[in-house]
Design goal:
The chain is of the alpha+beta class and 569 residues long. It is built from 18 helices and 22 strands. Helix 13 runs antiparallel to helix 16 and helix 14 crosses helix 15. The structure holds adenosine-5'-diphosphate and magnesium ion.
């Protein structure tokens, strides 16, 4: 066994960097946090090649004292903590003194800084954490940190990075999480000289609107609650704006510090349980006595331990629950209600001006809707027609005869499975899904984090049937959509595809995209079907190799042999 020896500082820092700086977004997060701790009123972030080539953060904060510059890149060197007692009354984002040292150890770092009381600033250059030069420079007050060639000496880590647009979007996600809690600070974020995010100083509502989109912001409900000395405030999805199937990660802040905490997420979701299985959009700010939590759990400082888990759970749960109860128009969301809003599949609603539901809808004809928003259901279902008659029950199930049995088919699941199998086959064969051109292009708003991905994925989206062009800031013009997609589902479907592109590995992308397409396009339960539509759907279903369950393993139909029926009598 070789002798035990202390590791040199540069190796220690590189090891720490493995925990603190996982990807360019983590470096941006740490540097922006430093600017916030320096009480900057304006923070500009600029990156090149997804942050791999360059990350630059400029602020107009307090600056670093010239004699402290070398110290700032040393491990455990911080101006924010003096003794162990301070650990339990932290009000700054940083406190571990690990970020600059970690970033410096795996990049070429330049610090330019000037403080108000000094006539001149300082420019210092480091490589792999080692000081290369330090000189006086005429600089405006504040700090500019430039990180070049991140991971230049950690090639394995560099290999794990995703393409530029995904890294840009992760950076944007970090910026948005910090920006949302600091509405008095102006943020600008440019990637390869393109402005991806800009938010001026303003109210919290205005900031949420800049971060999550104006339509999302408008759909949120304000909450305010206090219990056991824990103050909970923020915004949550109003019950009438819940979106089924969409898993939103809540924005949770503790003393303005973005955190992730499964317990709080559960407390939020549980309050929505009476409305169904939803994870709504939530921006929640928690304030509680400093000695009741510990943020020193992980180097990345996202995790928190509470001294009273139950009290935190209960305060958040009650805050959300109460706000929902007090909703002015208490929603009577029942399954039937939500479904009634869905138009028949062969008529897609206008995305922005939905048609009010008529009390007794007549089956619409194509003449009534002479534009190409008409989406015929039949081609999706196929042409082969079974001999047997079909009967629809509860506008959700199709009953028919097959051989010596009766089938009860879930229409939504059946259509989902049919569309999934078709889309998967087409994508695996390198074919594009059918698209229909819209006579009146739809303007959709994308969450800011997904805009860079959309830009890059435009061609991939074409294969899925979407023809999209950039319209302005976070808005996009959709000129064509997959043949069977309802217009009301366009925005969610695109978001689903983009999230797949961001998260998935290439080999399971086809399946995820096919599933997203099927989920957003399948006819809903609660929709009346014509006899012909039912016949073709049954025929298409039964011609599949595995017609029994959806890709998620849900049963598609029940089969009851005639013998069993006879026995029941
Ligand atoms: P921490 O934030 O945990 O203190 P960092 O390694 O992130 O540790 O930063 C080390 C120190 O460098 C900080 O404590 C602060 O004094 C100084 N510093 C870093 N960035 C800035 C900045 N943008 N403006 C002013 N001071 C800064
Ligand atoms: Mg820091």
């Amino acid at each position: 066994m070789p002798q035990i020896q202390l590791l040199p500082d540069c190796v220690v820092n590189q090891i720490a960097a493995g925990e603190v700086i996982e990807r360019p977004a983590s470096a941006v997060k740490e540097l922006v946090e430093n600017s916030l701790d320096a009480e900057a009123a304006q923070i500009k972030i600029s990156v090149k090649k997804g942050g791999k080539d360059l990350i630059q953060i400029s602020d107009n904060g307090c600056g670093i004292e010239p004699e402290d510059i070398e110290k700032s890149v040393l491990r455990h060197a911080t101006s924010k903590l003096r003794d162990a007692g301070d650990l339990f009354k932290l009000s700054t984002n940083g406190f571990r003194g690990e970020a600059l040292s970690s970033i410096a150890s795996i990049s070429k770092l330049v610090i330019e800084t000037a403080i108000r009381s000094m006539p001149c600033g300082v420019r210092a250059e480091f490589e792999g954490g080692v000081l290369k030069s330090k000189e006086e420079a005429a600089l405006p007050f504040g700090t500019v940190i430039t990180v070049k060639d991140l991971f230049f000496n950690a090639p394995v880590r560099a290999e794990f990075l995703k393409n530029d647009s995904v890294e840009n979007s992760r950076i944007l996600d970090c910026i948005i999480r910090l920006a949302m809690a600091n509405e008095k600070v102006r943020f600008e974020y440019r990637a390869d000289n393109r402005m991806l995010f800009c938010s001026a100083e303003g109210s919290l509502q205005a900031r949420i609107s800049d971060c999550l989109g104006a339509s999302v912001a408008r759909s949120l409900k304000e909450i305010e609650w206090e219990e056991f000395g824990i103050r909970v405030r923020g915004f949550i999805s109003a019950p009438e704006n819940l979106q089924a199937g969409k898993r939103n990660i809540p924005y949770i802040y503790l003393q303005k510090r973005p955190i992730y905490n499964a317990l709080i997420a559960k407390a939020i979701n549980q309050a929505y349980a009476p409305y169904g299985d939803y994870s709504p959009i939530a921006v929640i700010f928690l304030d509680m006595p400093l000695e009741t939590f510990d943020v020193n759990v992980h180097p990345a400082k996202r995790e928190v331990r509470f001294s009273r888990d139950n009290a935190v759970f209960s305060a958040v749960n009650h805050a959300v629950h109460n706000a929902l109860q007090n909703a002015i128009s208490y929603p009577s969301i029942s399954i039937a209600n939500t479904l009634r809003e869905n138009p028949p599949a062969y008529i897609a609603t206008n995305f922005q001006n939905p048609q009010p539901p008529t009390p007794d809808p007549q089956p619409p004809t194509q003449e009534l809707f002479p534009d190409n928003r008409i989406i015929p259901i039949s081609p999706a279902i196929g042409n082969a027609t079974p001999q047997t008659e079909c009967l629809q029950i509860g506008k959700s199930f199709i009953v028919c005869e097959q051989g010596q049995s009766m089938l009860i088919i879930d229409q939504h699941r059946a259509h989902k499975l049919i569309l999934y199998e078709r889309a998967l086959q087409a994508l695996q064969n390198g074919e594009s899904l059918d698209s229909q051109e819209l006579l009146f292009p739809e303007i959709i708003e994308m969450p800011a984090v997904l805009s860079p991905i959309l830009d890059e994925q435009k061609n991939e989206l074409k294969k899925l049937g979407f023809y999209i062009e950039h319209f302005g800031f976070n808005t996009w013009q959709v000129r064509g959509i997959p043949a069977h997609l309802r217009i009301s589902a366009v925005g969610q479907a695109i978001i689903g595809f983009l999230e797949n592109a961001k998260e998935s590995r290439e080999n399971d992308m086809f399946k995820k995209n096919a599933l997203c397409y099927a989920n957003s396009s399948a006819i809903p339960s609660g929709m009346e079907l014509s006899a012909q539509d039912m016949k073709t759907m049954v025929s298409d279903l039964l011609s599949l190799q595995n017609p029994y369950e959806t890709p998620k393993g849900e049963a598609v139909f029940m089969k009851m042999p005639l013998e069993d029926i006879k026995r029941k009598f």
